[in-house]
Amino acid sequence: MAKSTTLCPCPPTLRKQTLTLPCTLHTCKQPRKSAPHSAAIRAAQDNSGSPPRLIDIIRIMPETSKDYFKKPSRRVLFGGISLLGGFYIAQTVSLSFGALGVNDVISAVLCVLMTEYATRFYYTRQKVSFPAALLNIFKLGFTYGLFLDAFKLAS
Predict the structure, then answer these.
(1) What is the model's pLDDT at position 54?
(2) Membrane-spanning residues where (predicted)?
(3) Most distant CA pair in the chain: distance in Å?
(4) Cβ atoms within 10 Å, residue 19
(5) What's the rounded Cα separation, in Å, for the pair 8 and 22?
(6) DSSP H/E element including 34
(7) What does the alpha-carbon distance between residue 88 and residue 83 come to, in Å, rounded to a whole number?
(8) pTM beyond cutoff 0.90
């Protein structure tokens, strides 16, 4: 293949690289230059100097979260956020289904199933993990919100 890039409308960044391949970006069928294969293999094995890839971030998330939640203050903070989040969701469910008067029974069944599943999930564990504890705290806030709303309606 000849290294003629004068007629190819490809961007200049593609023309500056070393290997020549047929141009597949346009219909010109002129050869274009591409990156050497060793650079692609090196990028798959070691990405030093370049931004991290998505798969690298996903692989280190469990380890990073364990390190992040070692401090008790962060555990308490996220426990409080989980408790208040459950309370907020309970108020939202109660307000939306209670005000409309539609599907009250179905929403009550879903709430009971959610709390029972969270209880079973938490209490059947041999060793309770932090996400399971957050789910249980969310369930407590949810139950508290529903009880508080029931007391508001009864008065």
Answers:
(1) 85
(2) 76-99, 105-123, 130-148
(3) 88
(4) 13
(5) 10
(6) strand 31-34
(7) 9
(8) no
